[in-house]
Automatic annotation (TrEMBL):
InterPro entries with a match to the protein in the record: FAD/NAD-bd_sf, FAD/NAD-binding_dom, Ferredoxin-NADP_redctase_2
Record bears the keyword Flavoprotein: yes
Gene3D superfamilies xrefs: FAD/NAD(P)-binding domain
Residue ranges of every copy of the FAD/NAD(P)-binding domain listed in the record: 7-286
Phylogenetic classification of the source organism: Bacteria, Pseudomonadati, Bacteroidota, Flavobacteriia, Flavobacteriales
Pfam families named among the record's database cross-references: Pyr_redox_2 (PF07992)
PANTHER family: THIOREDOXIN REDUCTASE 1-RELATED-RELATED
The protein's name: Thioredoxin reductase
Regions crossing the membrane: 6-25
Protein keywords: Flavoprotein, Membrane, Oxidoreductase, Transmembrane, Transmembrane helix
Length: 307
């Protein structure tokens, strides 16, 4: 194996969190490879908000500037590919990619994000990130005071309705079938003028992802400007689980305060470990993870565990 294929740290996932980890490690003089398949979760959203200094930029603009700044560090390389397999070696890990390359490193960081699972409602995935929104802090200001819906039910539908009522008074909870809210929850929403509609949804009628109407299975429709929802998800990358990294009950990779997973030498950062889903948080976690990985490498050197 040539030295060109040997790294201190391989970061799988080169979006906001992976790039932030790489910057901390590059500045710590570590030899780093970022492997990225180019599919960040926010790629369909036209503008990203609520990240200081970058408010209103496109997701791509933020990522491109980040990549430029990170790859200025001589010891950091960016490789466009999909990591397909990771094996443990005597001194670390071996990563295979879909391009057929094999790379080795002492430590691994997974900054691989999550994949949202779209319901099978016509038009839903086309509106995702444009007028079907995951977070009011990211996109709520732009649709403030508009006719807005929540796509949800039960405890989560109730809590999300309370939250979104801060941004608009014209709010309906669409339960897409029979409401499972308690009598008390329904009464609370009613007291706050939040409507509940149980009709089953057939389609989201839209123009280029901009929602026009919700079409119900009974043929009726309702004009709505934006919908919020929290979708079920899966880990974007199955490799951490294949390696034995434990997941939390909610499906996130389990980490400790130093961002270590339950497998030695493997760290994780960003959306794959937390519900707090913002670019700012992904960057913050990436920076911390990079620093923690560097600290572990230093500690190992001084306790002679590795060269
Ligand atoms: C629709 C939408 C809109 C959003 N809007 C905003 C907003 O306006 N403001 C805000 O602050 N936050 C927003 N967010 C949240 C924000 O986008 C995420 O918190 C952030 O992208 C998480 O960064 P990450 O690096 O952890 O993961 P991601 O950005 O999802 O990146 C993960 C990366 O890992 C790569 N990857 C995965 N598996 C592999 C593999 N096996 N090999 C190689 N690469 C791999 C992927 O291709 C991807 O590039 C939005 C999220 C969504 C879904």
């Amino acid at each position: 194996m040539s030295d060109k294929k040997h790294f201190d740290v391989i970061i799988i996932g080169g979006s906001y969190s992976g790039l932030a980890a790489a910057m901390a490690l590059g500045r710590a003089l570590r030899k780093v490879l970022i492997i990225d398949s180019g599919k960040p979760c926010n790629r369909q959203t036209p503008y990203s908000h609520n990240f200081l200094t970058q408010d209103g930029k496109t997701p791509k603009e933020i990522a491109t500037l980040a990549k430029q700044q990170v790859t200025m560090y001589d010891s950091v390389e960016f490789f466009n590919s999909l990591a397909t397999k990771v094996s443990k070696t005597e001194n670390g890990f071996e990563v295979q990619t879909s391009s057929g390359d094999i790379f080795k490193s002492k430590k691994l960081i997974f900054a691989t994000g999550i994949k949202d699972e779209m319901p099978s409602i016509k038009g839903f995935s086309e509106c995702w990130g444009i007028s079907v929104l995951h977070c009011p802090y990211c996109h709520g200001y732009e649709v403030r005071n508009e006719t807005t819906g929540i796509f949800g039910n039960g405890e989560y539908g109730f809590e999300f309705s309370k939250l979104i009522s801060n941004w608009t008074k014209d709010l309906t909870l669409f339960t897409n079938g029979k409401s499972i809210l308690t009598v008390e929850q329904s009464a609370i929403l009613e007291r706050h003028q939040i409507k509940i509609m149980e009709k089953e949804i057939a389609e989201l009628e839209h123009i280029n992802g901009q929602l026009q109407n919700i079409i119900f299975k009974d043929g009726s429709k309702k004009s709505v400007k934006a919908i919020y929802t929290r979708l079920p998800f899966e880990q974007h990358c199955p490799i951490p689980e294949q390696l034995g990294c434990e997941l939390t009950e909610d499906g996130y990779i389990k980490i400790d305060d130093a961002h270590k997973t339950t497998i030695n030498g493997i760290f994780a950062s960003g959306d794959n470990v937390t519900r707090m889903r913002t670019v700012a948080n992904a960057v913050s976690m990436g920076t911390t993870t990079g620093m923690m990985v560097n600290k572990e490498l230093i500690e190992e050197k001084f306790t002679n565990k590795s060269k």
